[in-house]
Amino acid sequence: MRLLVNLATGPENPTRAALALLVARSAVEEGHDVRLFLAGDGVQLARPETAEAAQGIGTGSVAEHWEALSSAGVPVFLSGLSSKARGVPADVRAGVEPAPPGKLVELAAWAETTLVY
Could you tell me how far CA 47 lies from the centroid of its own chain? Predict the structure, then answer.
């Protein structure tokens, strides 16, 4: 299955943010083809120091999920407009690709299922 996880929740709700990454991680571990798109306040989680500080209640560590997704080679796209508005640099983390709104449309068309957190 092709799965898109669109994460727009940021560090203000670490439980929900970690849940999105946990679901993406679980899907990868089950052999699904996963893409991750961070937008809105979710782009702040691309900052390593923010990811390290974000711990969900019952949903785990954002940093640990991020590392597992990165190790699995999951493509991660970061909204360029959201990043610019929040001062998140385009090169915030290796393996993260800045993306325009059209990329989210492309990914949604590609996916068989889209989950939004």
Answer: 11
